[in-house]
Design a protein that fits this description.
With 162 residues, the protein is of the alpha+beta class. It contains 3 helices and 6 strands. Strands 3-4-2-1-6-5 form a 6-stranded mixed β-sheet.
Length: 162
């Protein structure tokens, strides 16, 4: 998975974050409209509809701001190919293998847990602060990391870093 795939992974992450931003922005707008609607004027001291809508709008707006920050980070991400033998760093695609099965991870600055599908390959975003990200960052090809398994931790070997 070379440079072309790294930019394709980043582009897929950006597209997914942009879709989420558009959704949250529309939801925040709709909630704000509901909060200020004359139809939602309190009908008594226990009627909290407009206040609940205002709280919801505030939370959605906060999430939208976080998504904008994430998009900025991903747009600025350095995708320069790593030299052979270089340790894993933010922006790297890392392939690990256990029991003949390979799994691909993108070490991203934020938004861990996103799954990106490219052709027939799934790439999962992990961050340096996640348990797996802490194990991967700074490692080189050939190192092992432990992932939870049904019968306890399973050793996975890093087979590629690009």
């Amino acid at each position: 998975m070379g440079r072309m795939q790294k930019s394709a992974v980043r582009d897929a992450i950006v597209a997914q974050l942009q879709r989420e931003l558009d959704l949250q922005s529309r939801a925040a707008h709709d909630s704000r409209e509901e909060a200020t609607s004359v139809e939602n004027k309190a009908e008594g001291k226990y009627d909290m509809r407009s206040q609940e809508a205002a709280y919801l709008a505030e939370g959605q707006a906060r999430l939208a701001v976080e998504l904008v920050e994430s998009l900025t980070l991903y747009h600025a991400l350095d995708l320069t190919p790593l030299p052979a033998g270089a340790p894993a760093a933010v922006g790297a695609i890392i392939t690990i293998e256990a029991r003949g099965r390979q799994t691909h991870y993108f070490l991203g600055p934020r938004n861990g847990g996103l799954d990106i599908s490219l052709a027939d390959t799934t790439v999962t975003v992990v961050t340096p602060t996640s348990p797996l990200g802490r194990q991967l960052i700074g490692q080189r090809v050939g190192a092992t990391v432990q992932l939870p398994g049904r019968g306890g931790p399973v050793a996975h070997r890093i087979v590629e870093i690009s």
